Amino acid sequence: MVRLGFIIGFIALLGALLSGLAAYRVHDQELALDRIALARAIDVHASLVQDRSTERELLARVASGLFRAPSVLKPNMLEPLRSAIYAFKTDFVVAGWVARLRPGELAAAQNAIAAAGFPKPQIRDYNDKPIDSASLTQPIDVLMDLEPRSDETKTLPGRSYDDEPVRSAMLTRARVEKRSVASDPIPLLRGNGPIGVIVAAPVIPEGATEPAGFITFSYELASLMLTNDDLSLFSVALKDPRKENSELVANDQGVVSTRMTTPDGPAPSATRTISFGGRDWQLGYYAKTNSARRAEQTAIIVAAIGFAITAMVCGLFGYVAYNNLRLSREIQVRIGFERRLTAVIDELNHRVKNILAVIQSIVTRTLRHGSDIDVARELLIGRIHAMSNVVSLLSESQWQGVKLKGLFEARAIPHADRIAVSGPDIAVSARAAQSLSLLFFELASHSDEGLSLVGKHPHITANWTVTGEEPETVFHFRWEEFNTSEATRRPDSDFGLILLDRVAPEALGGNAKRYFTDVSYVYELTAPMETVVDMTERDRTDKISAPVRPTKSP
Question: Transmembrane region positions (predicted)?
Answer without folding.
Answer: 299-322
